Amino acid sequence: MNGFFAEEFEADAPTDDTTTKANGPDTGNTAWPELGAAAYRGLAGEVVTTLLPQTEADPVALLLQHLTYFGNAVGRGPHYMVENDKHFANLFVLLAGNTAKARKGLSAGRIRHVFDTADPDWARECITGGMSSGEGVLHAIRDPVYTVKKGVSVMTDPGVSDKRLLLDEREFYSALEVMKREGNILSRIVRDSWDCRPVLRTLTKNNQTRVTNGFISIVGHITIEELRQKLDHTSMANGYANRFLYGCVHRSKMLPFGGDELDTTDLGTRTRVAIETARNFDRVTMTAAAMELWVAVYPQLSCEVPGLLGSLTARAEGQTIRLALIYALLDGADEIDRVHLEAGLAVWAFCDASTRSIARLAPFTMRSLIGAPPRSTRATAHAVSSRWAG
Fold first, then answer.
1. Considering its fold, how many domains does the chain have in total?
2. What is the arithmetic mean of pLDDT over 18-24?
3. How far is it, in rounded angstroms, from Cα 198 to Cα 356?
4. How far apart are CA 2 and CA 65, in angstroms?
């Protein structure tokens, strides 16, 4: 990220001997972001390092999708409290490549294969695409519908019992087009779904669709130019854009004949165990070590940033907490420890840098991001930087 994040989260992504990046970045003077080593920890890191040699997909795309898939498969149970708000393990991720050949879709196929073992029912029934309308999204996880006939309430639609839904949008440009149409409620449903409101509903008087305790995650695929064209002041003003984590991805290598098929049974089995363990948790807290780190980084995460960048990154604290929560659940832990928070911070730092690249903003220092911070903030940053560097 910047400042005192730099030492701890320096780039060190998993590599293999055949890795030769293709279709590399074309971002002018802006450096292509790289994900820090802290993010590739635990089971998620093992998934990436196992799959990477046999795919052209970017390791970042593999990691972000594994985290998102896992969080949705766990469901609406474990959460971290921020005052009266519950942060669950649902993520909205947008993978942005320079071209359509960034191999974003290949990463989805590889991760899907792991979850075919981890939770086959979820993988078969709860992953879908087609964000054509807010009503359509709600219909996929709708509550039962009852109609009164001759004074008796009769079920006319049994609804959908499993409220988990992962929207896999390979052409997210189309969804952004829909969200800009006047009268379309998709952007509101996106906002409310990330917030995990207990009830989602359409506002039509007749044929109202209602969803109780829905749990929605999103993985979108788009080119950087398409994203630049569509992110405007409207999307900033209605608030759906800052619900997403933006990740710049590109092809990791050339494999003219494709990668070999891998036996991911062990990874899938271990993922299933982590999912089943996590479902037994309710409120997740932080260890003392994680709290100490959170106190140190919170001022920077919470700093107000003006303009487009500030609008896109306004939920830094909430996004980081959700990422740390998922890393903890992957470890079978009901507390966020320091390593989990460090992993979440590394992912957030990468997504923040990706957002800058997409917005054509130059790499930054702490002072350029937040101006001259109060003396106490500078002292805290220096102390943490020295401790981590030592």
1. 1
2. 42
3. 33
4. 25
